[in-house]
Design brief:
Length: 206
Amino acid sequence: MYRVLTVAREFGSGGASIAKLAAERLGWKLLDNALVMQIAAAARVEPELARRFDEQVDGWLHRVSRLALWQGGFEGVAAPEAANVFDAQTQASLAASLIREAHQQGECVVVGRAGQCVLQGEADTFHVFVYAPWEQKAARVRKRVGERVDAAELIRATDRMRNEYVRLNYGCNWKDPHMYHLMVSSCIGEETAAGAILAAMQGVGR
């Protein structure tokens, strides 16, 4: 019996909306923006700062500097001012910790934040990946950000970052089908996709 659902999603696929529908039908807690707020509270930082680092990775120089701080420093590389600096790596670590806590409590839907990696070995967790045809993704993103932003580049950049987030933090391929119980296209409609996920959760393992 599944107690937790993770939903990874392409940017613009409608995966977050589908996850919300699934959570509502299940009567479970949704961990999406709420997770970011929990991270901000745990780190005692402003929510805007937590949102800035959400599903991001630090730049190469920052990662090297961070490593230098813990290993004694490298000549010519400026280390962060304090060991407790809040950055993308800190954000990812807190996200993983909170996702594990949520798993222990059960009855929650985790959106993104590499939940499929954090809980990969948990038999009571169902993993889903939501994707969509390019034109549908572009239309969703244009509706959200308007015409002043290059929707195509925003989609590519966001998905590259999500892939890097998973790769750097967990050594996984974001789109590896073996990580998921189900990969579903939102082209069938968000309501239908949510229904398909719930049907699959009930059917798998029977």
